[in-house]
Amino acid sequence: MKKETTIAFIGAGSMAEALIAGMTKTLYRPEQIIVTNRCNQERLRYMKETYGVQIETNKEKALKAADIIILAMKPKDAMEGIVSIATDVSEHHLVISVLAGVSTDTIMSLIGKKVSIVRAMPNTSATIGQSATALALGRFANEEHLAIAETLFRTVGIVTVVSEDDLHAVTGLSGSGPAYVYYLVEAMEKAANEIGLDRSIAKELILQTIIGAAQMLKTTNKPPSVLRKEVTSPGGTTEAGIQVLEQYHYQEAVIACIKRATERSAELGKALVPTAINRTSASSSR
Ligand SMILES: NC(=O)C1=CN([C@@H]2O[C@H](COP(=O)(O)OP(=O)(O)OC[C@H]3O[C@@H](n4cnc5c(N)ncnc54)[C@H](OP(=O)(O)O)[C@@H]3O)[C@@H](O)[C@H]2O)C=CC1
Ligand SMILES: O=C(O)[C@@H]1CCC=N1
C-alpha cells in the first residue's frame, strides 16, 4: 500500500494554524501532519488538542518522517529556522515556503543543497477554506511538485500560479489583504458607535454588508465601479459619503498601502540575501 503523504510544519503560528485548520477539514488526516516550532511547548500542545496533529520538538525526527516540509516561521527567524533543519533536508523532500519575501534561491542557499522548493503566498482565510493562494516554482521544482502543492493549497481555497517575481505583489495584495478588510470593518464599527447604533445590531449589519458586496462581485461579474454606481443615487447619501472618502484620498491611500506592502515584501527578502550568500560561499570553500 502506498504510504500516505506526511507533512512537517516548521513553525506553528497563525499561518500554520490557518493551513492546518483548512487541511484537516478536507484531504488530510491529522496524523499526517507533524508540527514543530522553536520553543513554545504550550502552543504545540494547543495544536495537538485542537487539531489532533502530531507534535514534535525534535526537528530531525519530524523531517525523517516527512515528505513535504512547510516553512512557516517569520522571515526574521528564517535564517535560524532554515539552518536548523538544513542537514536533515534531502532531495526526497518537497519544501514549501510561505515566508513573505524570501526567494527560493535564498532558501536553497541557506539549506546548502539543490532542493525542490515551491513558494506559496496564502492568506489566513485558509482557516475556513477561503484562502487566495499564489504559487511559484523554485529552480529545482518541477510540474509534479507544483501539482502536489496545488492539491495541498486547494484544500484551503483557490490557487493560482505566478512567476516568483510576482509574489511580492501578491503578498501586498492578497497575502496581507484580509487585514485591509478587517481594518475597514474596524472603522465601520467605530463609526456605527459614533452615530449611535447598538453594537450587536451594527456588527450584524456590517458583516452582511461585506458578505453581500463580496458575493455581488463574485456572482454578478459586474465591475466594482458599476456596482458602486448602482448604489449611488444622484444627490443621495452614498454620493455624499463617497465625496468625503475622496477628500481623504481613500483610493490613493489604498493604492499606497498595497504598494508599500509589496515593497516591504522585497525588503524582507533582501535582508536575508547576504547571509544566504555567505553560507553558499562557506559551503563551496569547504
Ligand atoms: N499571518 C499571515 O496572514 C500570513 C503569514 N505568512 C507568512 O507565514 C510565516 C509565519 O507567519 P505567522 O504564522 O503570522 O507567524 P507567527 O509569529 O504567528 O508564527 C511563527 C512561528 O514560527 C516559529 N519559529 C520561529 N523560529 C523558529 C525556528 N528557528 N524553528 C522553528 N520554528 C520557528 C515560532 O515558534 P515559537 O513560538 O516557538 O517561537 C512560531 O510558531 C511568515 O513568514 C509570514 O510571512 C504568509 C501569508 C499570510
Ligand atoms: O504581514 C506579513 O508580513 C505577513 C505576510 C502576508 C500577511 N502577513
From TrEMBL:
GO terms for cellular component: cytoplasm. It is an enzyme of class 1 (oxidoreductase). It is found in: Cytoplasm. PROSITE patterns: P5CR (PS00521). Keywords: Amino-acid biosynthesis, Cytoplasm, NADP, Oxidoreductase, Proline biosynthesis. Pathway: Amino-acid biosynthesis; L-proline biosynthesis; L-proline from L-glutamate 5-semialdehyde: step 1/1. Its EC number is 1.5.1.2. Residues 6-101 form the Pyrroline-5-carboxylate reductase catalytic N-terminal domain. Pfam families: F420_oxidored, P5CR_dimer. It catalyses: L-proline + NADP(+) = (S)-1-pyrroline-5-carboxylate + NADPH + 2 H(+); L-proline + NAD(+) = (S)-1-pyrroline-5-carboxylate + NADH + 2 H(+). Residues 164-268 form the Pyrroline-5-carboxylate reductase dimerisation domain. This is Pyrroline-5-carboxylate reductase.
